[in-house]
Structure formats: C-alpha cells, structure tokens
Amino acid sequence: MGVPIALTVECDRPTGRRQEAYDFIRSYIVRHGHSPSIENIRLALGVSKTRAKALVHQLAAVKAIERVPGAQRGISIPGLARELVLEELRREGLIVSAGEPCPQGHLPLIAILAQIPDKSAGEHHDGSECGGAARL
C-alpha cells in the first residue's frame, strides 16, 4: 500500500525498525482513523516503551511523521489523507494526476443571468432587472 521511505539522513535506505514503526503507524491510522499510542507501537514491534518513543522521535526528526506536542495519539503522516483520497478515486475508475493542481483556477467564468433579454422584441435591456450585475 505505502511506498518505502528513506528515513535516515546518512543513507538512502530505510532502517529496519524505523521502517517497521512507520509501516505500523501508517496501517494503524488507515485501519482505525486515528494514530496509535506509544503502547500500541511498543506491543506491535515488541520493543520497550523507551525504544518505541525513540523510534517515534526519530521518525519525527526526519519528517516522516508529524507530532502534536503533549497530545495523546497526536501522530500524523504528512500527505496520507491526500494519498488515500487519490487511491479511492482511482479505485472508483477516475483518472487522477496527483502531480498537477486542480484546474479550478483555469476554468472560464460564466455569467449568471436571472433573465435572458429578448432581442427580437426590440426592447433595450440594461440589466437593471437583474440588479445590474449581468451585462453582455
């Protein structure tokens, strides 16, 4: 599901325990909708509470995860929500390009008309009936 990430500054390959911790945190968030506790991480990896805290601290230091200081279950993965939404859209059959911005800024603006004037009747319409907002 997730793509392996490089978690160390010294080398490009992920370290075993940190990658395990990252994979567990990611799958836990996906499955439960919130982050795991340090105790959940400790039990899943079979490490001490001190080691689990150290792994979370190391992941935060390399920006693989983000933490809310002092918050319980305050771990998040940057970009995970977007990644999950894109996966779901693709699963539904939509073609989505994650690298390009949405085109809303490039769509043409369409005038909203309360009434389309009748040119054949020879009437001159100045837009006053529509609050003057729509002039063509």
What does this entry show, briefly?
Helices cover 37% and strands 3% of the residues. It is mostly helical and 136 residues long.
Key terms:
136 residues; 2 strands; elongated; mainly alpha; 37% helix
Task: Describe what you observe in this structure.
Residues 15-74 form the LexA repressor DNA-binding domain. The protein has 136 residues and is mostly helical. Helix content is 37%, strand content 3%. A two-stranded antiparallel sheet has the order 1-2. Strand 1 and strand 2 (75-76) form a beta hairpin. It is elongated. Residues 6-13 have low confidence and may be disordered.
What topology emerges from the helices and strands here?
Layout: H1 16-32, H2 38-45, H3 49-61, E1 66-67, E2 75-76, H4 80-91
Give the SSE string.
HHHEEH
Low-confidence stretches: 6-13
Q: What integer value in Å does the Rg equal?
A: 26 Å
How many individual β-strands? Answer: 2
What percentage of the residues does DSSP assign to strands (E)? Answer: under 5%
Shape: elongated
Sequence of strands across the biggest β-sheet: 1-2
Biggest sheet character? 2 strands, antiparallel
Average of pLDDT: 77
Helical content class: 25-40%
Structural class designation: mainly alpha
Number of helices: 4
Distance between the termini: 52 Å
Protein name: SOS-response transcriptional repressor LexA
InterPro entries: LexA_DNA-bd_dom (IPR006199), WH-like_DNA-bd_sf (IPR036388), WH_DNA-bd_sf (IPR036390)
Pfam family, one: LexA_DNA_bind
Domain LexA repressor DNA-binding: 15-74
